[in-house]
Fold each of these.
Amino acid sequence: MNILEIKNLTTELSGDRGIVKAVDNVSLTLKKGEILGLVGESGCGKSMTSMSIMQLLPERQSKISGEIIFDGNNLLDLSKKQMNEIRGNKIAMIFQDVMTSLNPLMTIGRQIMEPMMVHKGMSKAEARTEAIRLLDAVGIPMPEKRVDEYPNSLSGGMRQRVMIAIAISCKPKILIADEPTTALDVTIQAQILELMKKIREENETSIIMISHDLGVISEMCDRAAIMYCGNIVEEGTIDQIFENPVHPYTKGLLKSIPSLDKQVDELYSIPGVVPNLYNLPVGCKFADRCPEACEECSKGRPARFEVEPGHYVSCRGGIVNG
């Protein structure tokens, strides 16, 4: 059963140089208890997709269209008050920059307590007791002491755990994790990922895992969607994506992963650069960088094909139908 359905989501941002489509006609589904990976290079639209779902973009500089269906409602049709009741309560987010996401002027406990007091109607004493329990649950030692401390007294890994405690405080149905292990050492990364798996198992929480790290995606996710320049170019199960990649961009990403089995003088990188969003090509956005591009690729945007059950790719050349 799908807990979230995104249909033709488009996010336009206005700036000094004009309007760009940061998210371009994206469609995705998320099942109950599933972990979906959203993968791609920096600037491909992953975080913009999550910010659009949460409706956290500035209204004057952004325009969001399409449908985001959750609990039978299109989130884009809800009032600010209705969205505030969902945000942080039924849909929560772990933000990318853990060092600046916590309020340095509020105690850790207060920041965990606040959503429970607002959304669950808990008293201050009840919320404090639950905050201590949550700190313990996410692996922070001496939670009774830490609850009264400020973020600057914690390491990066500890702050990330606090962010997770805040996000799960109201037991959301959906958790969006935007690069949750960035800037953490590998030992702490592993601990954070195990914690997120535990959250999924205990609460049947559906998770959207945003990352450029294919290793994290392969370890954590059930399915993955590959993004390039605001579009989903390939989508499938982890086995389908990693064992039978179809889109040239997906192939390039996988080829660029370092391997202990192969000794190379230079790591592979996808040639060329991402096109300027203010001056996008008429055809496939990846065509200029694609080793398999054909004449058809420059004539129009690629259609979406089902390669095998549940495995989709958007490619116009001879990769799918040739």
Amino acid sequence: MLFSCSATSKYNIKITAPQLQSDTVYLGRYFMGNVRTLDSLVLDKGIGEFKGKESLKEGIYVLYLSDGSYVDMLVGSDQTINVKLDTLNMPYNVVFSKAGQTEDFYKFSMLYFGSQKKAREIGGAITPNTPEAERNAAIEQIKALENDVITQREAYIKKYDDGMMGVFLKGYQMVEPPECTLPDDCSNPDSARMAFYYAFFRDHFFDNINLSDERSYYVPFIRQRIDTYLNKVLAQRYDSIIPQAINLVEKSRGSDSTFHIMADYVLAYATNYDLPGFLDMRHIMGIDNLIVELADRYYLNGEAFWADSALISKIQKKADKIRYCQIGKPAQNIALADADGVYKPIYDMAGTKYTVLVFYEPDCGHCQQRLPKVAEYYKQFNDSPDVKVLAVCMTDDKQAWQKFIKEYNTGNLINLWDPERTSEYWKYYDTSETPMILVMDSDKNILVRNIEPEVLNYFK
């Protein structure tokens, strides 16, 4: 008795392309904003099949040709799909059959793109000289097109609420804020309104996307949505971003796969900010605190089950490098010595408003350039208790230290060192790059770290 391959296949996507004979067709899938190629086939007289013994993950897929033409295809629970390609006019005139969600996804896509194209044509015909009546009529036409798309979208969401079509359409739809109502005696309504909408989008930006549903990550827009949230919706401050980044990971914990995807994404986001060369991102001082948070919550306690020993080791090193010198956290009160060898805690030498702590090496070219600038900054304070600058030489060669002070005119700084190496300053302060310049506030909390000397002029 003979059995067809398709009878035992979990998915079967039959391709018919009359214009092609032996061309190659590729099957890809969206994942976190990118298309990953999963399979390819060479057509035989314009016919071929993608099939497999395990079901495809539900999501938005792509059928594409070597010339770059493509069409998006929804794969839902029904994975027997017939596709007839018009290869001369892709993605138009494609015919999907057998799988209802797949057919309706394509129909809606064509409706949406057709509506957008028509709206652009109508809008493009409006000029400054267009009579008001014609202008208003054009605006009404555009609104009608938009309403038609909305009506169809809502109908499909109702029809496929729990299906892949529902996941896609609900996720694509941006959340709408409620009306902001303020009391009549509000003294600053503009600021209050801005604060209201900021709080709304901070807390509800992903209301239409279930981050614990793996299907949500196999759509074209998910990466852009997450990036927009972290980089534009949230206030670009470390203490605004980090709690919400952790919240994204927590929202993803509905399954192992979604937890893995989101935790690794947020880790990549955090480490990108920490890499040398990402200077355009480093303006968010303290964002690398997120590395410590992720390490302690997920990666160093075994919860990130997918992380191998090599990754864990890298994360451990990155986290430990800044663990004790995080922005917003108290600086470690290490004891350092003066030229006479007398050790004293740095808190005892601190300024009443600001304390600048500088770690440097005598033979470091960057230190030789920057320490004189730090000394010049400090001259404006004379003997004021408000600001103190502690310059820590990272050598046990006293002669080299004293020579540096004399040659680079840094004698006005509070010059310190640790010849006995009892303070373990390298453990508590990130001295992997020198000079390392750090500023503390009056409570000894770290305000900034790894800055250029010019930034010190903000602290007076």
Amino acid sequence: MVTGRNPRFSGKTVLVTGATSGIGRACAEAFAKEGASVIGIARHAAGERQEFQGSGSITLKTADVTDLSSLREVLTSLPSGRVDICVLAAGNGIAGPVEEVGSDLAKKQLEVNYFGAVNTCNAVLPLMRKQGGGHMIFISSLAARVPIPMQSHYSSSKYALEALAMALRMEMAGFHVKVSVVEPGDTKTGFTANRVRFDDAASPYKEVFRKSIARMEHDETNGDSPEKVAGVVLSCATRKNPPVRTAVGAGGKAVVFLTRLLPDRAMLSILSKIYL
């Protein structure tokens, strides 16, 4: 990463959702170190400002991606009046068997991971369209390629997110707004500890659920750093014509290759053996 006299994103305004932790925080810092003026959004942002070498900075703003009006309020206060790059990193996870996770929890999962991205698009795209261009970068997951048992609603939210992003890429091409997706695999962040677990001791799924969760937590705590994901996002942002979807790391690329090579029945069999 360059931090010398010619930072790559000097003079650019970058908006990052979910910017106080995990992948969102790592992305905010990566862009700031490259000279960008980063506006970091989170529900409980403290409002502080951090300066970085090379004229970059991070300014935290309180907003909730499930509340469109709060996002629009942040955008009206931007000193530059523009957003050059938007990284949609806000998200959370819910784990449990489909039979037992109620629709209310499923809706909450979609409310943040999917509709939060929809709200961010609704707030940001008018600015990008009027200014003549921009770049929307969606933080998805390899779970959008392969569904994870006991994380069905999380996987579904990422499937939906990628369909949204790919349709948006076509819609915005005429306005010079680029749209791309970054797909992390297992990543070591606070996401693991914050995952909502539907763990019922009386459930007939109890044993298999706990085994599945233990495997998830092991893989995540031994996974890629959020800084590695941020490096892929930064690289994507420098591309004149970025790929539609970019998997993170050799492991992520291997998963994508296998989804193209193997029939669905074989892929589901492998996933069942890993998690169940």
Amino acid sequence: MKTRIVTAAVGLCILAIVLAFFDTVLFDLALALICLIGIHEVYSAMGFGRRQWYLFAAAVPYTLLIMLSSSAAVRALVLPASFLVVLFYNICLIANHGTLDFGRLAGFVYFGGVIVFCFYSLVHLKRVLPPEKFGCDAIYFILLVLCFAWGGDTSAYFAGRAFGRHKLAPIVSPHKTVEGAIGGVVGSMAAGVLVTFAYSLLDGSFPLLTVEVTARGYLAILALGAVASVLGILGDLFASAVKRQVGIKDYGTIFPGHGGILDRFDSVMFIAPFVSIAVRHFFYLLAR
């Protein structure tokens, strides 16, 4: 537990540094690096090694292209680049049909796509909520995504230990319980309200949110937290199911006591796109 706490503290410090460069390309590059580490963890989990280096090598420029696509010029390259990447992986399978397993290749491409989709959602928030117009709104929503995910994880862990009786998905994740999942939903909702309230207290001396969050806004945060928590549980179970099938305990060792990037961000995978979509289309209408 001590190792986990120390690692979490170091991780929060790194998060603060990354957010300090939010309005620069360094933020996008930091997310791209995290994204590539996660993709490499999937690459290793699928049993690929040095002989299949070209599979991961092709993912590097494509991931950078997606994560740096804030400008219109770069976004124009995404469609042809996507076509070339898909074509490349198909040619790889044809050329190495005797040694390259389709199932593992498909798993690598699909899971890699999920990871890119997740972290691009955070870059998308930055693009649709530019600081010159929306102030610190994008940073707030990124923190909200992380609070929904990690607040739910923490609450589920302690609720499961205290009250867990009924298994949620015993084959995929034997330690998860229905009671823990309920605790996770409550925890995500509470974490969302707390971070929003903290921002509202700071807003008087340091402008943060461009919209005043009313009672309806807090109800919207509660609703977002409830849905996000369920999506976080699904992301966690999805990552666990893959680990079960490929026979590994953790995706990596980059976070002592926590595992790899995917072990720490599995619950974020589906929350980030959901919150980005909800914010873009609904939040500013519901908050007033």
